[in-house]
């Protein structure tokens, strides 16, 4: 939104800060995980065991942003032409990917895997090469998963008990609220205010348009653990539709810029931004990540800078004198 901003230069600084910060904290996290020192960076859970959480309260928040940084580092590695710099990006990818595994965030694992498919496809444009690349990473990840114990969390992705069963209950509640007001939802931010649904608490026409007017407010961490159901419950089809439309338009704009870009740096940024949006969409199946500060700040900054670069490149093309 700032015409005189040098988006290209600022984006370069942003990625340097992003890679330096998360790689540095990952190394500190390894020390905390292995030695017990700096224990404020780790957390113990009866189900997941010892987890790397960084400076967050929840391991899922840390897992989500490490998935993003790992994906961006992979994009930079794939697109980099200079060998020394290429290996530096590979090191950043490996360190951040290991930190991702240590968060024990299953939703982040799944979203990371799905985004890998997108990135490899955009880079190789070959089903065979995509499958071989995924197989290579899977084989390389096996010893890491075994040594860290993260393999147990991977296997728990396929379990239906435990936290998965709790999520099913939360999703059922969100869907029930959505059916009471499918167009506009029962009110933004009101999902966790509803402990017991009473028809008299709804104003309007339940089943069509209704709002939850009970004056009880609960400022806690409760949410539907699914962005799509959360927004359907609170803002209805219209609210969720507008939210998704915004991000789809952002993706479309960056995709167009990616295909128009001729320099290596621009392609890195545009592919990273698209991968960030894909990751956010996949992450949102297991958490309400569209309302999660950690991943939203990182992704919003990335996509905004990418759009700024696209706009600036377009302006430079228009202003270039014809010969």
Write a short abstract of this structure:
The chain is built from 10 helices and 4 strands, in the order αββααααααββααα.
Name a few traits of the molecule:
two-stranded antiparallel ribbon, 10 helices, 5% strand
Assembly state of the chains shown = single chain
Mean pLDDT: 88
The helix count comes to: 10
Total count of strands: 4
SS-based class: mainly alpha
Please trace the helix and strand order, writing H or E for each element.
HEEHHHHHHEEHHH
| Unreliable sequence segments | none
How would a crystallographer describe the biggest sheet? Answer: 2 strands, antiparallel
Amino-to-carboxy terminus distance: 30 Å
Q: What gyration radius follows from the Cα positions, in whole Å?
A: 21 Å
| Percent helix | 55-70%
Shape: globular
The amount of beta strand, in percent, is: under 5%
Strand order of the largest sheet: 1-2
Question: Could you characterize what this model shows?
Answer:
The chain is mainly alpha-helical and 323 residues long. It contains 10 helices and 4 strands; from the N terminus they run αββααααααββααα. The strands form 2 sheets. The protein has a two-stranded antiparallel ribbon with strand order 1-2. The two termini are 30 Å apart.
Chain-wise SSE layout:
Layout: H1 7-35, E1 42-45, E2 49-52, H2 59-79, H3 83-102, H4 106-124, H5 127-148, H6 151-156, H7 163-180, E3 202-205, E4 209-212, H8 227-260, H9 264-283, H10 293-319
Antiparallel strand pairs: 1-2, 3-4
